[in-house]
Structure formats: structure tokens, C-alpha cells
């Protein structure tokens, strides 16, 4: 192979992981970030002794490379990316690059919502089943870093549509598509079909020996499958119908059937409640069945799973009011699930950077469950227009402390206070984790 030159655009988790792996595989590495690279990542770059820069892009060095890895945050439409492709320089994602150096089978999980929960649940099942697996991708460690570090028996990867956009030969042995609802449309020319195609790239290189697990109640998914053929074996899950091969609900039990083997578990025993979590559980249990994990182990794992931080996370009960952190709800659909699972009157904290949200679907739920809305964002006009005449009380703030204090004053015994923003966090916070942590700190300081 000789010493190939790779240029890496972006010094975040995927960029640093790629640098580590490329260096290990004998590439000449140049990493460039237009923004500022975090100190913890600079430290890694200094340790592995690769050339890097931040707050600029030195084009001569980037265009000197034979291959370019671009971070998922950089759109395909960026002028530099277009020019690289015109010059015939291969541009790939970190997921694609890492896959060239690993024979370890992958469970790849994508979807608009639920993918983090399913990824964590699959990892939990594998761990309890005694299967050595590495979890990462769009959460936690980058795939490239894990490939460089260690060879487990399986990789469990959460994959965003942006990561899938940059694959060519990457092939998960088991692909999962949790659902598709409009999200990130600003990156897909505001065309839902482009976003759907992007999600289905998870099946692009699958063969007859691979599996595709998907939500058969999701019209966007089933319509696409009606029009396109995929080679992998389909294993649907549904709350509405039954399958010869797949997962469904019967007599309040989850049933997973694969090639005449059957797994059942009462839905009441699942650690995570709510319809959407029954689906997440079906997807994960299907993987566990494929990997022949003992049924008893699957049941125990599904019953003791803790859930994911910032996803309907119960923080504290104060004066019999429950405070719930759902900061990970960065789109309307995620917030729909949150409101749907509220069993009592709710004070709802919403707002942030809107990715083209349409709030209509939430109106009946807000009408039924929400007693007051606190807008936590720089621009709340759309929220006010959408819900102003449904709820009596609507307040605005740009401070999390202030929002939680307002909620404390508005909530009565037995109520919930729910942070489920339906928006991205970048107007006031570093990211949704920062937003969720600030909420939890503010609640603990009441």
C-alpha cells in the first residue's frame, strides 16, 4: 500500500478516531479543523504525532491527499467537498474508512428517534449474554477509534444519516431502522425522500446472509420497501400486525419469531414503558434472538435496563412533582413520544433552534396533558403561535435556572415538569447533553 496520504476534515470524535487508526495503518495524516479543536483532542494529536491545524484549512495540504475523511457535520454541498470530488479525490466518512480495517460483524442502528436507546439496549443484551462488544459510532467512541484499539466479537454502532451518506462498502451484518420522521431536512434540500434514501443506505451493501430489522408501522419505511428491493432478510416489528418472521405484540406479550424459534416476554415487565419503547425492545430482542442469547438472559436484560441519559430520565420528585429530563428530544416526533407517555398534568419546557418544525401533531396531546408551557429559547414566536390559544399559561426565558424556578411555581402536587424541547440546543447551550445537565443541576438546586 505504501504510505498513503489522508487529510481529515474535522477534529471532533470521528476525526480524532480516524487519525488514530490511519496513523496505526501507516498513513501520512494531516488533520484540519476550521473551528477550534478541544484540548482533550489536541492532546491526543500531539501524542500520536500527526500534523494538524485548527481555525483554518490549508488547501494545498488537503488537496495533496489521496483520500479525505470528512466529519459528518460537514455537508456534501460544502464548496471544498465539491472541489475535492471534482479533482477525483476520494471523500469518505469515518464509518467507511474504519470498515476497511475490520472483519468484526456490525449491528448498525439508524432512525430519526430511538436509535440511542436501541443501541444501548443491544449493547446491554450482548454484555449480559457474554458477547464481547464495542459500542459507539454516533454516540460515545468513534468506530475508527474502536477498530484501532481492540477487536471485540461484535460492534454495536449508532449511525446518523450524515454518517451513512459517506459510505461506499460499509456493510452491517444486522441493520436496524427504528423509524423515519422529518429531521435535518436542511441538509437534504428540504426533500423528505432524500432523507429517507439516506437512512436506507444502511441496507445498501447487505447480502442475503444479512438481516434488516425495521418498524413495519412506519409508512415512510414500508412505502420505500414497496418501491425498492433489498437483498438482506427482512425482520419487521409492529404493534399492529403479526409476522411469520419478525416481532409483534400478542396478549400483552412481546413475541419475536425467527425461523421457528420464538421468544416471548410480557410488556409489563419491560424496564422502559410506553409504546415507542415496546418497539425499541422488539428491535433489540430481535438482535438477541439472532445471536442466540439465552431467553432468560434476554428477559432479565430487558427488565433491568436503565435507559439513556437525557431520554425521559426521571430526575427527582420534589413536593410530589416529578421532574423529567428529555433533553435528547431534539425534534417534534421525540417530544410526541414524551408527551404521549405523561400520565398526569404536565408543565412543559420547550424551545431552542427549530429545524423546520411543524407542531400540528402535538396539538391534541398538549390540549390533553399540558397545563403550562415555558419557552426556553432565543426565538419562541412559532411555539407561541402554535400553542398560545391552547394553554392558559405561557412564559418565556433564556435561562435554565429561571425556567426550572418558573416550573416549580406552576406545578401542583402530582404534576410532572417535563423538559422536552423538540428543538436543537445551540442557541443557549453547547449541546443537548449540556442542556440536560443544566436542567438536572437546576432541579437539584431548588
TrEMBL record:
GO CC annotations, alphabetized: cytoplasm
Presence of the UniProt keyword Translocase in the record: no
A GO term for molecular function: ATP binding
Biochemical pathway: Cell wall biogenesis; peptidoglycan biosynthesis
Pfam families (UniProt xref): Mur_ligase_C (PF02875), Mur_ligase_M (PF08245), MurD_N (PF21377)
Annotated ATP binding sites: 111-117
Mur ligase C-terminal domain span: 310-423
Substrates-to-products reaction catalysed: UDP-N-acetyl-alpha-D-muramoyl-L-alanine + D-glutamate + ATP = UDP-N-acetyl-alpha-D-muramoyl-L-alanyl-D-glutamate + ADP + phosphate + H(+)
Alphabetized InterPro entries for the sequence: Mur-like_cat_sf, Mur_ligase_C, Mur_ligase_C_dom_sf, Mur_ligase_cen, MurD
Enzyme class at the top of the EC tree: ligase
Entry keyword annotation includes Transmembrane: no
Mur ligase central domain boundaries: 109-288
Record's subcellular location: Cytoplasm
UniProt keyword annotations, A-Z: ATP-binding, Cell cycle, Cell division, Cell shape, Cell wall biogenesis/degradation, Cytoplasm, Ligase, Nucleotide-binding, Peptidoglycan synthesis
Biological process (GO), any one: cell division
Known EC number: 6.3.2.9
NCBIfam families: murD
Function: Cell wall formation. Catalyzes the addition of glutamate to the nucleotide precursor UDP-N-acetylmuramoyl-L-alanine (UMA).
Family: Belongs to the MurCDEF family.
Protein known as: UDP-N-acetylmuramoylalanine--D-glutamate ligase
Gene name of the record: murD
